[in-house]
Records
---
Amino acid sequence: MIIIQRLLVPLLVLCAFAPLKAQDYAPQGGNFSFGVRNTFSLFSDGDPHGFGYGAGAHVRLQIIDRVNTEWFGDILTSSILNKAHRTDYHIGWSVMYYIINPRGFTRKFTPYVVAGHCFDLARIKINGPGGALGSRVTAAVQAGFGCHYNITPKFDISLCAQYMIHLGKEVDAEEDPDGSMEIVTHKNAGWEGHLLISLSANYKIAQLWKPKQKKVKAL
Amino acid sequence: METQTEKSKSIIKYYWQFFQGLALCLLVLMAFKTNAQDIWEERRGCIKFQGDLAPGYLLKQKQVSAYVDGDLGVFVEDRVELTGALWASFDLTHPDETGIKANHALFTGVNYHFLKPSHWDPFIGFTPGVGLVRGEYKDANGQLVKAPFAAAPLVSASVGCAYYVGWLFNFFVKVQYVYGQTFSDLPVPDRLDELKFLAGLGFNFRAWRPKLHDKWKTKTPAATSSL
């Protein structure tokens, strides 16, 4: 953790001051893009070895050159010990901060940090007809890192890893010693969550507003 | 009674003959120098669509599947095509067999085209989707029971190639890999991992004329900032 702090903090400070140079690229504020994505869920509670995946879509609305927002919806399913399954419905939003100047997305790679909030409906069902069903709705927060690969300035493939923490009670399927499964609910589960890795394809459809181009004197 | 294997073999034979016929048509067209016909020099603003009877192969079940498929693509840049596809399945399993009885799907995503606009147009696609799937299982009494339809998120990628024979037509082949699983009321989840094959005649036409010419290579402005 200390190593991450020592590496990350100076990098972020450096990046925060980087835009104070002459800008030769069209301002990117107002960009509206649409994307589709596949999301992979790892280390879920209930079955730490379980691997879930889902599909979804998002739109992005860029505020300024370095700050973008993402509004997403996902459906994820994962198997729990092959005896139960979990379905997560996510709807939420994230703020992305570009660590390096995107230069109008003419760079091939644009790394970013991301953090946000979402609502999560989780449904866990024991496999088979009439299997027990448990569900809960919670809010969740997520944060992580990502990177755009800009194939053209308007079109990118993005890979993003975020850890999502569910706030509130936890619903889970647990295996009894006799091998049967039961749905259990824990109040105030704390740091229950999962790692989400998203792969998305995005296209900038329009620029909803044209920001004024400011000339900033080089330091 | 025709077994599942025999049915699969006859379907594979049918599609093999279809592919052979398609390859022959393509060769004949090329022999007659069809490339003298005009094709769109700029793909941006073009719309492409096709409808097909398409086979698939369910990898886990080792079973042939069949679909009717419709694809639509809009070129927003010369190299970038926003695409969507709707697949409706036919049930090829025997009435007494368990397994996947319906496997419909909707895919949306992006195709990336490697080459400048020309007759040949190879591409790769990333098209996540959602399936509407129904399986059949045997209950405790050995009776066949159909599970309710359930939505299944799908991971999908594709690779393909089109050959434009004119401003209106293209021949194409595409292979799509799909990864997913369905739960519904099934006692054990069923895999939906599959290879879908598409080939045939597609249509393309210009929907709008781009105002700005889409430069093939975007010139990068002189960089001034180091970060």
---
Amino acid sequence: MRTGHAWRRAVALGVALTTVALTLASQVPARAQGTPRVVEITAKRFEFTPKEIILKQGETVTLRLTTEDVTHGFFMKALGIDAVIEPGQPTEITITPQTSGSFTTICDHFCGEGHGNMHMKIIVE
Amino acid sequence: MSDRVDRRSFLKIAGTSLGIGALYSVAPLLGADGEAGEVARTLWKRNGEKPKPFSFVQLSDTHVGFSGPPDPLGTRAFERAVEMINGLPHRPDLVLVTGDLTHDSEKPGEHAARMRQFKEIAGRIEVGAVHLIPGEHDAGLDGGALFRDAFGPTSHAFDHRGVHFIGLDNVSRAKPEVGPEQLAWLKKDLARFPTSAPIVVFTHRPLFDLKPEWEWFTSDGDDVMNALAPYENVTVLYGHIHRHHEHAAGNARHYAARSLIFAFPDPATTDDKKPLPFDKDQPFKNLGLRIVGEPKARGLAPIRPTINEVELTMREFSGTVGANQFLREGAY
């Protein structure tokens, strides 16, 4: 009988631990999928800050874009990025890059004399 | 594209690049019969212009108002190009300027003054008509308002001696695009013509993805080219990239003109989009114009344009290139 009780206690403890573990496991991915990492990018004539961001292949991230002065564009065709950043109105785009590489991302909304060289890098590892 | 003259085609376009722009010659196949002959007769009747050989020049990216290390000479190349055009033994009928006539300025009144300066220099060109479309430095900041005040509409179409010319604006929406309204206008404009009509599109940015990371593209360029796809004789002339480039897709041939201010490097050789440095010994190196002229051969000559390169030089800065312009046979 003792052996039987001990066995039942062990099973009950195991079930409890498994339940906790499964609950935690289910919560972790749920948080990751629901709230992707947010990367802040600021535009001002004629540069982006930061000049480079590093993402992971397959990782879903939200790029939160703001401008400190005029309207800017944010364009990188291979990553499916084509956004407009209006003053006083943050723009959020969510991407899941599937290909690794270095992607030059440009302002494609003409913003003045230095517009042609306003760009940053998105590195996907 | 076939290298043989299609019997339905009645015009041939050949080009010569002068390094500061381009001169084009257009020669109707006057003996054409069938649909081609009908097109010629219809255009003649409509416009009172008998299709006959003519040439025109493309200039681009004069950037009036720019003066800096890549080109401290300002408008000198533009003015030299005007001299060259006026000195051509066979005066072209037209000059097309494919954008960035001026360099933008946000100082009050300065950009308008640059537009007036462009107008003054271009006014010296002794040809029948000068047709302009804007570049982003002309129209990107104000939606083309200043350009329209100075020069008129940012897009337009016209017929000249059997060739239909279409000036497209892919800059004044600030982003590199033509936009749905202009696309609808283009389709309506094209609907008047049979597919054999020779069409010259002139615009600022390339209508294909040449180098999107350098903003060398038009986001709805595919829509434009799809509208033009049924037409058998389409030549697209553009600027923006400040270097010569040729591209063929479907029935269309695309030609980029050199600028009249400074050159950009070949994007295949560098990721750095910086103007090529000024060479005081060859101040107009890599600058130029393009002339499209009459093809040398008739009959079974290719109907696609032929390009001849001509370097622009300047008498007082002739350097090692030589004091005179010279012709060199191009790739076609």
